[in-house]
Amino acid sequence: MTPPSGDLIGIDFENEEFIQTVLPRLPQKIRDQATDDVAEYLLNVMRAYPPYRKVTRTSVYGQPFQSDRQRRWFFASLDSGELQVPYQRTQGVSRGWEIIGSGESKILVNEAPGAQYAYGGNRLLAAIGWKRLAVMVSERQAKIKTIIAAAVKKAMRKR
User: Fold this and answer.
1) Below-70 pLDDT ranges, the chain
2) What percent of the chain has pLDDT above 90?
3) Chain-centre distance of CA 16, in angstroms?
4) 12 φ/ψ angles, rounded to the nearest 5 degrees
5) Are residues 66 and 21 located together in one domain of the fold?
6) Domain range spanning residue 59?
7) Which one of 42, 101, 113, 155 is CB 3.0 to 4.6 Å from 106, fit for a cystine?
8) Within 13 Å, how many C-alpha atoms sit on residue 142's CB side?
9) Are 127 and 59 in contact (CB under 8 A)?
10) What is the reported pTM?
């Protein structure tokens, strides 16, 4: 898992321990196919937004603003038109996911503004339903193992 930094967040399969315990034992062609299949599966998973849930800042943080400076910024941004209330989901984070690289060195990345906050553990976004990347991947370990097994079976049938 790549930690949030700047405007990039991603999933690096070479660093996923449970994938790397299985894949090194397989021939290169099968490893590449399994990584391709897992990447496609996770791309679809990551593109799904959590269902919308209305959550107030007060319910999450105990107060609407953390500081007077934050409050002034909010109202100045609202007056300038930089912020729109109510917030409209743009699906930009969903469309931001892409697969880079090939075979075992594949990585899923998202450079959309705000992606690092949506998947990086922001308390407000977590209350809405967004989960950390590590949690999303770990919740799907069984399915990922099934995908790897299917790639192995598929490769064996081709022989």
Assistant:
1) 1-7, 12-20, 159
2) 33
3) 14
4) -105, 115
5) no
6) 55-88
7) 101
8) 1
9) yes
10) 0.78
